[in-house]
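## retry 2 of 3
previous attempt timed out at serialization; input unchanged, resubmitting
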Amino acid sequence: MSIENTVGRWEKRWHPLRQEWVVYAAHRNSRPWTTGTTDQDTNLAPAYDPSCYLCPTNLRIHGDHNPDYKGVYIFDNDHPVVGLNAPDTEVFVHDFYQKGPATGIARVVCYDPRHNVTLSDVSPEVVNNVLSALQTETIRLSKIHPIKSVFVFENKGKECGVSNPHPHCQIYATDFVFRTVQTHLDAAKTYRLQSGKSIFGQILQSEIADQVRIIAENDQAVAFIPFFARYAYEVMIMPKNHHPTIMTLSSEEIKGLAEVYWQTIRKLDLNAGHTFPYVMSLMQSPTDQPDLDYWMYLHILPPYRAPGLLKYLGGPESNGGTFMADTMPEEKALELNRFSALV
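## retry succeeded, writing output
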């Protein structure tokens, strides 16, 4: 597929994992905007902030002091969404509505002791250390009853609602499976029954064959803006070998995944001219009984339709359940690949 043939395209594409249409209207991206624009804060943060709850040696909200850590630091969230000691409550309110205890484990993962860096600012080796730590933590949490699923995510930047700019992500280990993962599992099961093939394997094979949406690749992993991307700079980063969860990746595969991840977020920063916000999620199978039709991957969802211009969810997305995109995935991949020589 040539890039020239995608410019200005007006079409819909099927999202195989979410089982829904995505509508693309690239001709609308040139319309004038008077709202939704943002200015980047250019104030330089210090490497150490004495008021930051995540910086080394500082006092946290409940009285604990952080150690003088030098690498990755992981601790139980002081304000957990879920907990093994969550208040007990009746499971059913009545025959229709349901409720139950918010059971699980919430952890915080600090990437680096420095307050003023992101993963794109550090070396790929540091990113490798972070992914290795997430692998170790996933293995540990998966052995704790009644954990069924381990969901890792990072909200980077004020546009994504991050409460603390210190480089970190969070882990929610829960006694239920997150809805998007379950949707993927259902789609994978249906596709397997219909075709006898892996839906994730087909996505990976198709992107490698098309090439035009790939933005980083090595022998172990590949990053691409998927054919069915909903957000302009949405990226999937997949290991080339099949793994339902991060738990079974080899050290070499973790290293390759980290390198491709680092190249991807470096390109996002270079394209924007500043640290680019995003939500990153480690998508993986339920960990209590990994489903072999799932294929773990890192998912990046930046909130911009273009640098400095936010993507807001309007009626079709928030209530209609159908995404309306103003740019084509092929265009955005080409935009990011202008910086390939710099990463």
